[in-house]
Write a structure and sequence with these properties.
Blueprint lengths: L11 E2 L7 E4 L4 H6 L1 H9 L4 E6 L4 E6 L1 H49 L1 H7 L10 H29 L2 H46 L5 H14 L14 H4 L32 H5 L3 H4 L9 H39 L1
Parallel strand pairs: 2-3
Antiparallel strand pairs: 1-2, 3-4
């Protein structure tokens, strides 16, 4: 008679009192486990048999009895059990790290939205009343961080209960989050370049038309000048065409006091209450006199560096979490196959 012990097995021919042989290719321990019962039942009905295992590279002949069959395949079952336990343990450990990373994402996103100095500077990047790019990245980080907690729950429960349904759900959620992160990252890079290209026009318009009139914009420009040791957009002369100067809102000052070198520069609120080192020389139109008492460089380059660094931090965190998600997907598949 013929026994189909493995899907890839050759014909098994048996005769009473004669040698039985089986030419088969062992593709994996999982395939061996699936056919353990049928092969052992066959061996129990026979006298000791001889089995050949063949592949293109090797041929091995072994004799099996009922006892040897049981011991050999129990070994394979034990190996499979160890593999499943290993995948299970790794997935649980991974999810603990995943949860911590989710907490880090939430914390970072919230920090970018509540830090007073950052929020104040972000106003300079607003266009047409909309939020700055960095705001959207922070909101995206908070959203993904929240999803990580939910997804991590499915991963842990699926691993502990060895539930294929929960593991598949976990895999699908990870895949969707990974896709969203990729899309957000690509859009962030595209819009970052757009923001930087329009930054000079945007900030120049705010300085010219709103400085001294709009309290929030005035505060943002003063913070940038005090924080980055700069004056105006490209140079101090940018104030000459501003409503602040033309309407004499600065009381005969040529530039904002935050353009001056300040005595209290290290104070957190120095931009709100600036104390120039020498106010007279700072306001002088003579470049030789104001050289050591007024910031000579414009703020444009510093603002570009600021928005690039902020975006890089958020994108870097997103990429790190994406890497973790890929590992989680791999572990989920491995455990799913072992269950």
């Amino acid at each position: 008679m013929k026994i189909d012990a493995l899907d890839v097995a050759d014909d098994v021919e048996t005769k009473t009192g004669a040698t039985r042989s089986c030419a088969c290719a062992m593709s994996s321990l999982v395939n061996v486990q699936n056919h353990v019962d049928s092969l052992c039942e066959t061996v129990q009905a026979m006298t000791p048999v001889s089995i050949e295992f063949r592949t293109n590279n090797w041929v091995k002949r072994v004799k099996l009895s009922v006892r040897s069959c049981t011991s050999h395949f129990n070994y394979y079952k034990m190996a499979l059990g160890c593999g499943a336990k290993c995948a299970k343990g790794v997935l649980i450990a991974f999810n603990l790290i995943f949860w911590l990373s989710g907490a880090a994402m939430l914390g970072t996103g919230i920090y970018f939205l509540v830090d007073t100095d950052k929020v104040t500077l972000y106003r300079l990047f607003y266009t047409d009343g909309s939020y700055a790019l960095i705001h959207y990245l922070a909101y995206a980080l908070i959203g993904v961080g929240g999803l990580v907690f939910v997804v991590g729950f499915f991963g842990c429960c699926g691993a502990v209960r060895e539930s294929k349904c929960m593991l598949v759900t976990y895999f699908i959620f990870l895949f969707l989050i990974l896709g969203c992160e990729t899309a957000v990252g690509i859009l962030a890079v595209i819009f970052q370049d757009k923001v930087i290209k329009t930054l000079e026009e945007n900030v120049s318009s705010k300085l010219k038309n709103k400085y001294g009139l709009d309290e929030t914009i005035t505060e943002s420009i003063d913070l940038a000048q005090a924080k980055f040791d700069c004056c105006g957009v490209k140079k101090a002369l940018d104030y000459d065409k501003s409503k602040w100067k033309l309407d004499n809102l600065g009381q005969d000052d040529n530039v904002s006091k935050t353009c001056c070198v300040l005595k209290n520069r290290d104070d957190d609120d120095a931009f709100k209450n600036p104390i120039p080192l020498n106010g007279t020389l700072c306001q002088s139109q003579d470049s030789k006199q104001n050289m050591n008492f007024r910031h000579q460089k414009g703020c444009l380059i510093k603002l570009e560096e600021f928005i690039r660094s902020e975006s890089t931090v958020l994108l870097g965190i997103g990429c790190g979490i994406a890497g973790l998600e890929i590992f989680g997907m791999v572990f989920a598949i491995c455990l799913c196959k072992e269950i």
